[in-house]
Amino acid sequence: MSNPIKTSKIKGLKLWCPACSEEIGTTNKCKQTGGVAAKCPNAERHIYRVVVYEPGSNKRRVKIIKEKKIDLVIKAAVLFRDEVKNGKYIELAEISHNNVEEKEGLKLIEAMTLYKAFLDCKHGAAHTLRSRTVGHKKELMRSIILFAKAIKKQGIDPERLRIEKITQEHIGFYHTYLLSDKEYSNCTYNNRMNNMRNFFNYLNKHEGVDIKNPFNTVQKKPTSTIIKTIEPEEFKALIDSITPEKGIQVLSNGEKKNHWHPFLNEAFLLGLLTGLRREQLVSLHFRDIQEDAQGVPLIIASNNLKVNRIMNSEEAGDIRITPTPVTPQLLQLLDGELKYSVNRGSDKFLIAPDSELKRKTIMDIISKSFTHYWKQLDISVSKDISFANLRKTYITKMTLAVGDNARHLTGHANQEVLNKHYINKELIARVASNHNIFPELDMEEIKRKNEIEKLRIQQQKNISKDR
Question: How confident is the model at residue 437, as a pLDDT?
Fold first, then answer.
């Protein structure tokens, strides 16, 4: 075996020499000769072996993999680890190119295992891998799990169902399960179906499953997004409510939970005045603030974390930056509560710079605390608002100020995304109602002319009656 893979990437997978009965290890050095494994006299007999310990015990399971192709070796190792870790291990013959599994094709559960490993960047060619958030990966896998539950409800075993045997009937079971059993909205339904479509695209593209994507027949359900924004007086009421006393939540079991934190006021204000997502917001440093020639803060140039993750920008070396303008109100916040003159150019975070909490924890606190304090307000009964609505409010206001150029400040590729998901058209209509868009029309003059004409007609009618 002349080109051994880097086994350290797959836990428990090692190159094995049957002649020496020894693991060659991650260094790929032959223990007998001390040289590289490729020059070992027994190199042609080298095989791969994967060792996995059963959960909760010291009992280990070993599988010999006789495959020579790297992709098949990795696939066999990933599937075997899943079998053992999930208690599904059955002592069968070693995986080889001619065994039953290869003849019958990939089963749904096996495909799920490979896909999860791919999402976790533990399986697949290096150029195909990209980082995803934990939440995004869970959502993708959740859709497949729901599909497995849907067909299982119909008496179909997802552990035995082969990918190429999935038919439109199975898709129909999933369709009904999502709408009738789970009672999902049209938007959630579309997301679940789209995730399944992407799953099969992955199998076709990366696992050599040459079948027509069965989910291509699913039609999107119509959706209407209600975009809510927060009014100035509502936001002021929210800020005024941020006190330690009002931060106490009493749970159903009597336990008390504290939602007050000293950085909430600044966090909410920054959320409204920058329109940044939580993850990007809590990652802002004072060094991200760029000044003009007079030393006045001009923009905050921050890493567009979501887009860069999707585009795998760090790998490609093309980091996308969001340029957030420092508006007069934002400048007041920087000079005041955030003490910009003291912290300018430093590595300190804008939000909770002295906190020892992880940024992810602070991000979660901001969302949950916002929801808690909002629920304390009377307006929460008729208006459901979350921290994410601050971003929608900012983008709507910025669109009113700079028009379609707003997307260049928010990091969106096109105006359609803003129109569909972020811009509150009702607010734009209210603002537009205060503008005289037809100044050349004198409505008072038109009204006088109408009144004169009505009077003339009435006089003519009176003359006709006298005759």
Answer: 46
Sign for the CA dihedral angle at 10, 11, 12, 14 comes to positive
Separate counts of helices (H) and strands (E) for the chain: 19, 9
Average pLDDT of span 197-202: 95
CA triplet 110, 113, 114: central angle to 5 degrees? 90
Label residue 228 exposed, middle or buried (CB < 10 Å: 0-12, 13-18, 19+). middle
Q: How many CA atoms lie within 13 A of 202 on its CB side?
A: 23
Q: What is the pLDDT of residue 55?
A: 78
Torsion sign (Cα): 23, 27, 29, 32: negative
Question: At 49, is the pLDDT very low, low, confident or very high (cuts 50, 70, 90)?
Answer: confident
Given the structure tokens 């509502």, which residue do they identify?
A: 234
Burial class from Cβ neighbours inside 10 Å (0-12, 13-18, 19+) for residue 238 reads: buried
Q: What pTM does this model have?
A: 0.56
Rounded to a whole number, what is the largest CA-CA distance in the chain? 131
Question: Long-range CB contacts (< 8 A, 24+ apart) of 61-65?
Answer: 61/89, 63/94, 63/95, 64/16, 64/94, 65/94, 65/95
Per-residue pLDDT of 447-459, as tens digits, reads 777 788 788 888 8
Which H/E stretch holds residue 92?
A: none
